[in-house]
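I am writing to request your help with a piece of structural work I have in hand. I am sending you one protein, given as its amino acid sequence and as whole-number tokens for its backbone shapes. Kindly check, if you would, that the fold set down in the tokens agrees with what the sequence suggests. You will find the record immediately after this paragraph:
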Amino acid sequence: MACTLLAELKAGEVVLDLGSGGGIDVLLSARRVGLTGKAYGLDMTEEMLKLARENQVRSGLTNVEFLKGEIEHIPLPDNSVDVIISNCVINLSADKDRVIAEAFRVLKPGGRFAVSDIVVRGEDVLPELRRSMELWVGCVAGALEESTYRSKLSGAGFDAIDVEPTRIYRAADAKQFLQEAGLSDDDRLAQIDGRIMSAFIRATKPAAAPKACCGPTCCS
């Protein structure tokens, strides 16, 4: 639900949920965009797609389509989507550059990238701490560092990039899990205190591509 609110969906828009699971965000999005719009859900597992389609039948919504595929290879045409949403899925991908490039490809000019994800602040969180934190937060092990996330979005062509923390996790919150992993000494706890956060990540595909420069003076 947070993703649909974040995206500020409008009637008539086409929205795509990456890693749509049981389809709840897709169905909420379909209601927001109305019958003149459409909501797609993309998931790679038959089990989740089956559940999502059952939920769709119960909802009675017809402006919905669930697609089977990987978020690294979105089965939609270029420039076909107004808004991309996702809830704690992108950081699970082994090829985040490809995911972001695919998101940029399918978005229409002026389209919006509006996802909820786990983000790391600072680059020196030890791998073993990341793995243990995964038990606690749920999807930390593959989370990008904040500046890296921004850089990847910018490198793909996005602008108006914003990372808004929605919850900052404290070491005390994770102490029990880290104790069970044998990683609860003060130095290690200090490493993760305030360094892991849930965040809304927003970006926009430029409304018009910059003109190609054909020579030393044509871009002046």
User: Anything to note?
Assistant: Confidence is low (pLDDT under 50) at residues 210-220. Residues 88 and 138 are 9 Å apart (CA to CA). The helical segments are 2-7, 24-33, 46-59, 96-106, 127-137, 146-156, 171-180, 186-192.
